[in-house]
């Protein structure tokens, strides 16, 4: 009896999957999409160097009948499919890898090595999962081209460079993404997640990822012999006092209900134990959501650095120089109407257990630029879990650590990520472009 019940259940589930054209079309593509994934994984390219990846994506878009423009904002690809009257929907994927030497042990692991512009020899790896993003982009593109009878409007598929350095989205916008091509009312993207079990979708409206600033503090002192510190003004001591002082910007000057991070990630000064150096350099990353908190943090960094220098009796010409570096990435904001609509859609399609409401992250994403030029553009970036189920269960049971994004060990369950993301992105576009 049990055997017959199980067989009947399998037949029902198989029939349900077959009756769902989006899921069925995605399943048929999966062997080839996984080939794409493995190829992208084995051949990663650093930011603004994504020529091979861009060429493969452009070729797929042309084969599916899209109008394709390459080299937008550097190596970006814009593919447009016009299919009658209706809204304009943009689906975006990012292409760049990271200067990380892979240690996953995968049979198709990256062996690519480069020397960076800074002269550092390093491996290159898709340690942030953009290989799954590109494979899913191809899957959604093919699905939607084949389903033109089910939707009306204009679909724009964007393959974006340089997300990892926060420059690609702005570069594409500066190169006319919203003026040379139809301007979207809706922009949707996903990111694989190292904090959710594979195949789970994570949703959050409002602020979802943080604004990111890089700040340099150049320290100036009076150098001398380490045996005679009273004749010097030690920039190491000055920097140490600044590090301690900066901690109060979050703990005592930011509303506890607001999120903020100030991290001193690099502090360099001196070259020998018995020499007090003339200068030093501190490098910071600053994370926030609201513009008000961001301003308070940046103003506070400059004030703290100057105040500590005054306390050390440094003259005006020895005041620290605080520089907010180029490449600021705004906070990523998921607009409520679109995010709520997609949350309901995904729950109906995948079931409530596979759709989780997640907290905002202090990581950054330049997807944020797409709703800055005009607040009429609705945007949603959602997560697709990539943690293999066995690893997730083990971590829950014994507290073992899981590799994060940007880790040399990050190896998602790519099949579940690609299948889930392809289906979700296809379904999202079909819903937004549904025929009246």
Automatic annotation (TrEMBL):
Peptidase M20 dimerisation domain ranges (all copies): 214-306
InterPro entries cross-referenced by the UniProt entry: Amidohydrolase, Bact_exopeptidase_dim_dom, Peptidase_M20, Peptidase_M20_dimer
UniProt entry tagged with the keyword Nucleus: no
Alphabetical list of Pfam families matching this protein: M20_dimer, Peptidase_M20
Keyword Signal: yes
Annotated organism of origin: Sphingomonas rustica
Taxonomic superkingdom: Bacteria
Signal peptide (from-to): 1-18
Name of the protein in its database record: Amidohydrolase
Keywords, ordered alphabetically: Hydrolase, Signal
Upper lineage: Bacteria, Pseudomonadati, Pseudomonadota, Alphaproteobacteria, Sphingomonadales
NCBIfam families: amidohydrolases
């Amino acid at each position: 009896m049990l055997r017959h019940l199980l067989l009947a259940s399998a037949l029902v589930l198989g029939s349900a999957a077959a009756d769902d054209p989006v899921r069925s079309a995605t399943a048929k593509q999966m062997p080839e999409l996984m080939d794409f994934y493995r190829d992208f994984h084995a051949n990663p390219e650093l930011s603004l160097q994504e020529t091979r990846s861009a060429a493969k994506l452009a070729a797929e878009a042309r084969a599916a009948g899209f109008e394709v423009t390459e080299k937008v904002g550097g190596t970006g690809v814009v593919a447009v499919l016009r299919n009658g009257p209706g809204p304009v929907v943009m689906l975006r994927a990012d292409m760049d890898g990271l200067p990380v030497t892979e240690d996953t042990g995968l049979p198709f692991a990256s062996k690519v090595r480069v020397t960076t512009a800074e002269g550092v020899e390093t491996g290159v790896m898709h340690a942030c999962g953009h290989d799954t993003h590109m494979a899913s982009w191809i899957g959604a593109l093919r699905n939607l081209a084949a389903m033109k009878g089910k939707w009306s409007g204009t679909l724009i598929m964007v393959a974006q460079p340089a997300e990892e350095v926060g420059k690609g989205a702005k570069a594409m916008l500066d190169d006319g993404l919203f003026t040379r091509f139809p301007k979207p009312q809706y922009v949707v993207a996903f990111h694989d997640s190292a904090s959710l079990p594979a195949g789970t979708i994570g949703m959050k409206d409002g602020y979802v990822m943080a604004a990111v600033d890089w700040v340099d503090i150049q320290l100036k002192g009076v150098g001398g012999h380490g045996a005679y510190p009273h004749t010097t003004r030690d920039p190491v001591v000055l920097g140490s006092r600044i590090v301690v002082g900066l901690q109060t910007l979050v703990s005592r000057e930011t509303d506890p209900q607001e999120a903020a991070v100030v991290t001193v990630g690099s502090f360099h000064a001196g070259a020998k134990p018995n020499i007090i150096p003339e200068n030093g350099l501190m490098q910071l990353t600053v994370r926030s959501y609201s513009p008000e908190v961001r301003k308070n943090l940046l103003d506070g960094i400059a004030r703290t650095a100057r105040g500590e220098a005054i306390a050390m009796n440094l003259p005006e010409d020895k005041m620290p120089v605080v520089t907010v570096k180029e490449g600021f990435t705004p906070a990523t904001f998921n607009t409520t109407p679109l995010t709520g609509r997609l949350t309901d859609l995904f729950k109906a399609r995948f079931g409530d257990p596979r759709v989780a409401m997640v907290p905002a992250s202090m990581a950054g994403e330049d997807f944020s630029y797409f709703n800055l030029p005009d607040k009429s553009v609705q945007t949603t970036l959602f997560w697709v879990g990539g943690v293999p189920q066995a690893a997730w269960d083990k971590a829950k049971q014994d507290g073992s650590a899981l590799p994060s994004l940007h880790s040399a060990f990050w190896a998602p369950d790519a099949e579940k990520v690609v299948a889930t993301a392809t289906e979700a992105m296809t379904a999202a576009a079909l819903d937004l472009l549904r025929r009246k």
